[in-house]
Amino acid sequence: MRLLLHCIILILVVAVVHASAQSLEKAFPSSFSVTVTNPLTTDREGVLIVISPEQLARAAKKFNSKAFVVLDGETEIPSQYNHADPDHKGIVFVLDKLAASESRKVTVRFHAKASIERNYPRRAQAELSHRTGGAWQNREYIGGDFKNVDYLRVPPEHKDHSWFIRYEGPGWESDKVGYRFYLDQRNATDVFGKKTSDMVLQQVGLDGFDSYHNPQPWGMDVMKVGKSLGVGSIGSLVDGAITRVERTDSVDCRITENGAVYASILTRYFGWQVGDKKHDLRSRLSIHGGTRLTHGILDITNDPANIATGIVKDKAAKLFTSGGDHQHWAYLATYGKQSLNDDHLGLAVFFRPGDIVEMPDNEFSHVVTLHPANGRLHYYFLGSWEGEPGGIRDETAFLDYVRDVAAALANPVTIDIE
Questions:
Q1: Which pLDDT belongs to residue 1?
Q2: Per-residue pLDDT tens digits for 360-396
Q3: Which residues 6+ apart lie within 8 Å of 96 measured at CB?
Q4: Which of 359, 216, 231 is nearest to 292 (CA)?
Q5: What mean pLDDT comes out for the span 88-95?
Q6: Residue pair 201/168 in contact by the 8 Å Cβ criterion
Q7: pTM for the full predicted model
Q8: Run of H or E including 179
Q9: DSSP labels for 106-138?
Q10: 244-268 pLDDT, tens per residue?
């Protein structure tokens, strides 16, 4: 009887899958295939796939970004179309796992003329929220309520602890970790450790600026920034000291993408004063589902001597470094009981070996200085808290993870479209 019941359930499941596949084929009659190949002999997780508009034009001249789905076998997987982010424009989706040397074929189905919205559970998000309805009194914003916005030109009155921006800056998160940076003269990045894979930023800072420094049901702020570079913050080494993006003519910030699997934030700093020179700096930070990594892309004018980034120094954490090679990106990493919860936190910054200028000593931060190529610089950073669901809980596992990330960055997947 039990075997018969099992067979009936299996038949029903197969029938539902085929019915779903058939309905998708009817709703999205046109298709093309994408083969993703892992060149590494190790597994990789949380793989971001981007199919650019140019690739789409070659694969399907009538592709319609308003009506498409991505299928892994017969299973629809979350996807989105990025219009605003020039570095990751086009179809975006995530493969949660790609085995060693695996080639995976996925199918993109679309309708050339329809508009069909797909709703997926969120695996990434970005947000920016500030008070409205109140008034500035000197450098403090008094009264009003928080309102989420996609764009903010930072008022000249705004400094640290102005009570104007919820949790003091924009935030971004994946299903693994959250981040924020202070959208004021500090311009330093902080980490939100998460106890859940759900999106949580909308819950943060509603009941006061200090609440998230203590354990909450969703997690907590797990890192002390102080005068340091936090993790992955932007600065420059001038006369032996680190200058963060403190003195500027003006600053604005925009949520550029905010879909189910990918989110990005663009911040523009006009007239950043570094020594006796001024620079215009564009910083795009992005994250996607299934990863702890934030991708930073910097564009800067007026040929700076260097861009500095790094990790806060903490006596409770050991430092690990690698200069990288042609098979691995270089990195700075720390691990130990350095979280504000007095438990284990791993932090890492990744950069191309060829971009390194030096790794100077600094009082507050572990620092690397980098040279932008033609005014552009790519780097990545991450935080890994042991309080995450299934989090990394020992030094050996964290270092293995960091080395895997360094290898994955140097050996991106290949994409072939049929």
A1: 45
A2: 999 999 999 999 999 999 999 999 999 999 999 999 9
A3: 45, 46, 47, 290
A4: 231
A5: 98
A6: no
A7: 0.94
A8: strand 177-181
A9: EEEEE-SS---------SEEEE-EEEESSEEET
A10: 999 999 999 999 999 999 999 999 9
Give residue 271's identity as a one-letter amino acid code: G
Number of neighbouring beta carbons within 10 Å of residue 358: 12
Which of the four pLDDT bands, split at 50, 70 and 90, describes residue 21?
confident
Cα 115 from Cα 117, distance rounded (Å):
7
pLDDT of residue 207: 80
Percent of the chain with pLDDT over 90: 92
Q: Which residues lie below 8 Å from residue 414, measured CB to CB, with a gap of 6+?
A: 36, 37, 39
- Token pair belonging to 254: 């925009």
Task: Report domain extents, the chain.
Answer: 26-117, 124-416
Query: Which residue spans within 259-358 are E strands per DSSP?
Result: 262-274, 277-288, 294-300, 307-312, 317-322, 330-336, 345-351, 356-358
Query: Rounded distance, CA 150 to CA 166, Å?
Result: 14
30-37 sheet: strands from edge to edge: 75-77, 68-72, 103-110, 30-37, 414-417
Per CATH, the number for 26-117 is 2.60.40.1180
Q: Which fold has domain 124-416?
A: Beta-galactosidase; Chain A, domain 5 (2.70.98)
